Amino acid sequence: MMLSVIFAIFVCLIVYIYRSMKPPPPRICGVAHGPPVTSPRIRLSDGRYIAYRESGVDKANANYKIIVVHGFNSSKDMEFPISKDLIEELGIYFLFFDRAGYGESDPHPSRTVKSQAYDIQELADKLKIGPKFYVLGVSLGGYSIYSCLKYIPHRLAGAALVVPFVSYWWTKVPQDMLSKALELMPKEDQWTFRVAHYVPWLLYWWLTQKLFPSKSMVSGNVALCSDRDLVIIKKQLENPNPAMEKVRQQGDHESLHRDMIAGFATWEFDPTELENPFPNGEGTVHIWQGVEDRIIPREINQYISKKLPWIKYHEVVGYGHLINAEEQKCEDIIKALLV
Ligand SMILES: *[C@@H]1O[C@H](CO)[C@@H](O)[C@H](O)[C@H]1NC(C)=O
């Protein structure tokens, strides 16, 4: 009798643990009970759909084609304001897309840093934008740009990393520098990043449990915002972009959690070992960092750009993390990349 009660409790406990660890299934776009498909999409060779948005001049008449990669909790409808005049003057075609699991792009449960470059390459080829294109990644989307520099350098005309993501588990950046940078983050975020790196299968549980504080960056901690970032966030709250409601419609796990897991996983390469894709100066690579950015540790991006002198490093005084919401900065970024 006693034994069977203990056994029953044990079974219930296992079921409870299992259920709280297991993320709900994704709500796939365009299938029964899933969100509708409202954007153009291409189909990748593995069957997944990628949703995209084109802007700027017509691609047939463009002088420059730029693929823009959004960051964490964002999508192809992200901000990247550039004046019409500059777009026309330079002849720029922009291609935005939802990264796997975000917006209307299918989830990719085994997505990695590496798979990003190939998603981008296939998107470019399906849309026939030509043998070479520019890539520009913002924040967590920076890992996609490192991926392009590593795996498809021959396809690039130039690259920009805007307030790019830093992994605390890169192997060739001095460990003490990485640990110091990590310790500057709020405690909750440190633990969330560690869970994403060491026990990614626990991340869903970690971010949904209520015993320990786990959400800070993930739920918009103001301590991580510079004064300028706060002004931008206030503006965005007053005038929200309705398209942004679709960012996480397939589930937080497919979009946000898997993005973090991919970024913080062990990489197959270290950014400091990248080779210059433009040894003859046919193109340029840039890192943009806000001096007051409290999300991305400046020292690490400084270190990478010192190790890789072919990367042009730009530090912008007075700016925080949300550089891509400001037209003046976006135009500086584009001009440095193209002109
Ligand atoms: C994602 O962004 C939306 C605003 O677009 C915000 O309401 C939400 O809290 C954010 N979620 C996370 C997990 O960062």
TrEMBL record:
This is AB hydrolase-1 domain-containing protein. It comes from Arabis nemorensis. Residues 66-327 form the AB hydrolase-1 domain. Gene3D superfamilies: alpha/beta hydrolase (3.40.50.1820). InterPro entries: AB_hydrolase_1, AB_hydrolase_fold. The keyword Nuclease does not apply. It comes from the Eukaryota. Residues 1-19 form the signal peptide. The lineage of its organism: Eukaryota, Viridiplantae, Streptophyta, Embryophyta, Tracheophyta. Keywords: Signal. The keyword Signal applies.
